[in-house]
């Protein structure tokens, strides 16, 4: 399994905060019913499914070594990505015929090393700011996107004084993001139509995890968020799914658009990823009430036959969700299309699909 050093503590703190946030306060008022706005996105003709390639990434756990290995699915066929004692992918992005995957590999000393895979080839991410020419671990790449033919990667690095901080790589060149005094990590990245770069993540200040948003490198605090799960940029609009911080929705997963409440996810215990298209807003997550995977589609919650929904992608009226399900005590990766389970050529035990991208 990957070791993330102090980052493990940071991730654990976010998990604990998210879990506690999802516990309803006995003294909190019943949240009002809010109907998500229907006029905020343009009405466009809905296209039929024209998808040529479905790309997915996740992990396969191998019993013989007791380690996770990064796995890539192309149209349902699985293959293992190279590198490391173990490995874990976090995100996938497409640029023409090129497929980029962000993640981390485990080194021999047990630390995590941030990497990307381009068309299956491993490319370690380095600290180009270190004048001593060294690279300190742990580090991890958490999200990736391609903008104007440049590859942008968000994540976390370790500095020369062994502090861990939110980081950005642009075509392999590293930058440190403005942050709190106790470090942090970047989690999601996107660009507006006008070219502004937004990065969502968190910093640690006075031992508290502070959800944050960087615009062109300048950080601001997401005061409305207890825990931020994901961010998507559409046009000039910034969508964030988070555990909401208000008297009416304290701890409830909600979608926020440009800092304002867009819609509560009343049936969700936790949310993972989101997608925004011309036809609406879509969220993948789960509920711990009956331990089932959920997708949220323009105000409607869909219960999926599975355990966790990790990511979601949309093409016209067709909605693709990836995650996992449990069978006989074993966990298997799963793909749903419009709520229906899709066949995978390899039913890998102890597998989990975490990210998806579609190519027309």
TrEMBL record:
It comes from the Bacteria. This is Beta-propeller repeat-containing protein.
């Amino acid at each position: 399994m990957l070791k993330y050093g102090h980052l493990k503590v940071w991730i654990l703190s976010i998990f604990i905060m998210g879990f506690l946030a999802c516990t309803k306060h006995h003294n909190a008022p019943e949240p009002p019913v809010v109907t998500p706005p229907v006029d905020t996105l343009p009405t466009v003709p809905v296209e039929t499914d024209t998808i040529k390639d479905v790309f997915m990434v996740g992990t396969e756990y191998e019993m013989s070594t007791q380690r996770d290995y990064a796995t890539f699915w192309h149209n349902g066929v699985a293959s293992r990505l190279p590198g490391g004692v173990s490995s874990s992918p976090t995100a996938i992005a497409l640029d023409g015929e090129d497929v980029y995957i962000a993640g981390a590999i485990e080194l021999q000393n047990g630390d995590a090393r941030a990497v990307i895979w381009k068309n299956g080839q491993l490319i370690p991410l380095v600290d180009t700011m270190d004048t001593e020419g060294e690279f300190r671990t742990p580090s991890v790449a958490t999200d990736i996107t391609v903008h104007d033919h440049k590859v942008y990667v968000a994540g976390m690095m370790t500095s020369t004084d062994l502090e861990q901080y939110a980081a950005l790589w642009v075509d392999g060149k590293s930058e440190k993001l403005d942050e709190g005094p106790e470090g942090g990590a970047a989690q999601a990245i996107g660009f507006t139509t006008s070219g502004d770069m937004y990065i969502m993540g968190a910093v640690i200040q006075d031992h508290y995890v502070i959800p944050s948003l960087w615009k062109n490198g300048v950080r601001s605090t997401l005061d409305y968020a207890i825990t931020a799960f994901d961010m998507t940029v559409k046009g000039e609009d910034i969508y964030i799914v988070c555990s909401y911080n208000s008297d009416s929705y304290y701890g409830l997963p909600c979608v926020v658009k440009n800092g304002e409440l867009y819609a509560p996810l009343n049936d969700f215990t936790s949310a993972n990823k989101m997608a925004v298209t011309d036809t609406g807003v879509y969220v993948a997550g789960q509920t711990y009430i009956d331990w089932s995977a959920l997708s949220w589609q323009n105000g409607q919650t869909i219960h999926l036959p599975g355990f966790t929904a990790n990511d979601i992608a949309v093409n016209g009226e067709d909605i693709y969700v990836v995650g996992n399900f449990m069978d006989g005590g074993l966990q298997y990766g799963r793909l749903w299309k419009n709520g229906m389970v899709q066949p995978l050529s390899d039913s890998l035990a102890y597998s989990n699909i975490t990210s998806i991208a579609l190519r027309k």
